[in-house]
Amino acid sequence: MELLHLFQRLGLALALGLLIGLERGWQLRERSEGARLAGLRTFGLTGLMGGVWALLARDFGPAVLGVGFAALAVVVILAHLQMVRGGDQPDHGITTVVALLLTFAFGALTVSGSMAVAAAGAVITAFLLGLKPVLHDWLRRLTEPELFAALKLLLISVVILPVLPNRGLGPWGALNPYALWWMVVLIAGISFVGYFAVKLMGPNRGVPLTGLAGGLASSTATTLSFSRLGRRQPDLRRLLAAGVALSAATMFPRIALEAAVVNSDVLPVLGPVMATMTALGFLAAGLLWWKAGNGDTPGEVALQNPFEIGPALQFGFLLATIMLLAEGARAWLGDAGVYLLAGVSGLTDVDAITLSLSRMAQGELSTHVAARAITLAAMVNTVVKGGLVVGIAGRGMAGPVAAAFGVVLAGGMAAVLLL
């Protein structure tokens, strides 16, 4: 190895150790000298030590590196135990011990492996160490159902998804178990993120913010919640109408995202239409908010469990049914059958038809037909939301919502015809 190149690698090993040591030293800066297991200098020397031992391993064999790591681990663990027994260590955590061992590994990696990987690992380590207050706050706020929801989401994505067969089964080869379950994971993940967006932003920060965040999880559920609130509090109906319009407008970029993830070829056709409807929806919601007067009146959105296996299986069954019906409708009725199915599906759900048609557009279905059918489902679903407002909240809230939705639907139709 060229001498200059070697010095560069050893210098990086030292710098990475100093970086992690800087974070550890700052966190433990209030402790007296000798009351810290390791500080800036120790971490820097540990990183350099890893680089030197990796260099020795080049001449004397890989076992040397293992011996160096084991020797460091023994010394660090014994020092930690001694400090705990002597009362110099206020807590019994081993975070600093693990950080020291990682620093040795990063130092060794700079000499024997990739400098970029070692640098990235050290930066992530320092960042993660610095996030202790934030992470602990998250843990305190995390509920048991939310924890198990995250584990269930990992179960269906990391454990179940990879073992499913990735080939078409059933009539017309329409049912691909891997693709079906992957789309279930996709929609569950979006709902999961939407749930925590509502929780972290807080439903009591105002109707517009609640409508925006609630629309990430379920714009229909948000519409129902605001409509019930509008029926109980008539003086808030115009403000709540702005929240409904904003929540409904959030559905359109979500549709575009789902389609793009499944089949990016659909996006050039679908994207401009969804962008037009999104912009008009946000504009209409902004005008309603402005007319209602500024304020921060809270709007409550009931947060449900972010993920359950039962609803995921139900969505998977619905998705499989729609995919099968979509293939059958296309085979029997052509494009008209696809439009018919999209219109019917939009009465209850837009996610399943969006995912189904986006996938079908990878085969024989035209991307233009798929985009228009998805747009039709979104429009039908928007009309259904308007009907919910009329039926639950009454005319006082239905009028502004109908005006906003009318602008969005007219803009969407114009975009379809022009684009």
Automatic annotation (TrEMBL):
The chain crosses the membrane at residues 6-26, 38-57, 63-81, 93-111, 147-164, 179-198, 239-257, 269-290, 311-332, 338-357, 369-392, 398-418. Residues 10-137 form the MgtC/SapB/SrpB/YhiD N-terminal domain. InterPro entries: DUF4010, MgtC_SapB_SrpB_YhiD_N. Pfam families: DUF4010 (PF13194), MgtC (PF02308). The keyword Lipid biosynthesis does not apply. Residues 185-391 form the DUF4010 domain. Keywords: Membrane, Transmembrane, Transmembrane helix. This is MgtC/SapB family protein. It comes from Thiohalorhabdus methylotrophus. The lineage of its organism: Bacteria, Pseudomonadati, Pseudomonadota, Gammaproteobacteria, Thiohalorhabdales.
